[in-house]
Amino acid sequence: MTKILFVCHGNICRSPMAEFVMKHLVKEAGVADQFSIASAATSTEEIGNPVYPPAARTLAAHGVPCSGHAARQLRKADYESYDLLIGMDDANIRNMQRMCGGDPQGKIHQLLDYTDRPGEVADPWYTGNFEATWRDVWEGCNGLLAQLRQH
Question: Which residue ranges make up each domain of the chain?
Fold first, then answer.
């Protein structure tokens, strides 16, 4: 079982989009039973909140359900519980490393590192462009799944 935790600042836009896209992809590939997938925040601002409505609408428009989500904060113990901790941008990575006490096992990565265009996932909280975020998340999750299936 591969355990993946997607992480962003508030856990209401990018990381839950990645969580639900990845759940959708592994289900479509018939390998959902081989994965445990969740998401978390580096901040406490949105704890308990559902997926941000425009993010939920974007997922729904692409046929990806996202019900039952409640934002939660990353815990130091998550580092031992998950095989991969996937951040959305440089600030997430810095905060994840600080919160987890470093990355001695090399588990912390950025989502777009699994694509041919490494960088930061567009943050729709500031841009309002949820389709750009969708494209980044879709491409990153597909790249991540492809890499995991090779191993």
Answer: 2-150
Torsion from C-alpha of 38, 39, 44, 47, nearest 10 degrees: -60
Say whether 72 is catalytic: no
- E strand or H helix at 41, and its extent? strand 35-41
Q: Select which of 13, 14, 89, 100 is catalytic.
A: 14
**Does the global pTM surpass 0.85?**
yes
The yes-or-no answer on residue 149 being catalytic is: no
Mean pLDDT of 43-53: 97
Q: Where are the alpha helices (DSSP H) in the chain?
A: 14-28, 53-61, 78-81, 90-100, 124-127, 130-150
CATH number 3.40.50.2300 is the correct assignment for the domain at 2-150? yes
Residues 26-36: pLDDT tens digits? 999 999 999 99
In the set 66, 89, 100, 123, the catalytic residue is 123
Contacts 24+ apart (CB under 8 A), 60-68: 62/134, 62/138, 63/24, 64/20, 64/21, 64/24, 65/20, 66/16, 66/17, 66/20
